[in-house]
Specification:
The chain is mainly β. The chain is built from one helix and 13 strands. The strands form three sheets. Strands 1, 2, 3, 4, 8, 9, 10 and 12 form an eight-stranded antiparallel β-sheet that branches. Strands 11-5-13 form a three-stranded antiparallel β-sheet, with no helix packed on it. It has a two-stranded antiparallel sheet with strand order 6-7. The longest helix has 15 residues, at 2-16. The chain is elongated. The termini are far apart.
């Protein structure tokens, strides 16, 4: 009888002393990279600055563009603005070809811009003084914070044939005076002057 009890006690001890596990867990950490994406509104966008005003001895214009929803972006970006005109100067400066038997090329008008990109409700202008003469283009600026709602807005103001601000690259305005000493470069013919810009956004 003692042998039987001893054997049963040994079985109970073996059953209750176990070195195995009956449950366990681990953590799976997952990562997904959302790709950078920029989509710019199809162009061209048209902007008519209207008709010049006569002031003292020049014809000049100042106009502000519409507020364009320029692009969707989910990342910071570099904005690069370049330009061209009919005179192939590779600048966004207003120009028009002279016409008639005595024509001698193109009339160009000094042109300055204030260009503001809006992201996250904040407008940030390009250029150290807030405006850029056409001679400064192409011009680039980094906008490092992602537009958290995706929207990139653009608005600009242009001053044409105007002495707004001080810029050593700004050429002399075209005059409207009776002056027999004027050369063909001192006066600009009446007509429609044009230029264009290309705005490129590149993900940072």
């Amino acid at each position: 009888m003692k042998k039987v009890l001893f054997a049963l006690l040994a079985i109970v001890m073996i059953a209750t002393v176990s070195f195995g596990q009956t449950t366990g867990n681990t953590t799976i950490k997952m990562t997904l990279t959302l790709d950078k994406y920029i989509e710019v509104v199809p162009g061209p966008l048209d902007w008519d600055l209207g008709i010049t005003n006569h002031f003292w001895a020049s014809e000049w214009a100042m106009a502000s563009s519409p507020s364009w929803d320029l692009a969707y972006a989910n990342c910071g970006f570099t904005a690069t603005v370049s330009g061209e005109n009919p005179a192939s100067e590779h600048k966004p400066r207003f120009a028009m070809p002279e016409v008639g038997p005595h024509a001698s090329g193109f009339d160009t008008l000094p042109t300055q811009f204030m260009i503001a990109f809006t992201t996250n409700g904040v407008s940030d202008v390009m250029g150290p003084l807030g405006f850029l003469a056409a001679e400064a283009f192409p011009f680039s600026k980094n906008y490092t914070e992602a537009p958290h709602n995706g929207q990139v807005g653009l608005m600009m103001t242009a001053w044409v044939n105007h002495t707004f601000g001080t810029n050593p690259d700004l050429p002399t305005i075209r005059q409207t005076l009776i002056n027999p000493g004027f050369s063909i470069r001192d006066s600009a013919d009446a007509g429609i002057y044009t230029c264009s810009m290309v705005v490129t956004l590149t993900a940072l």
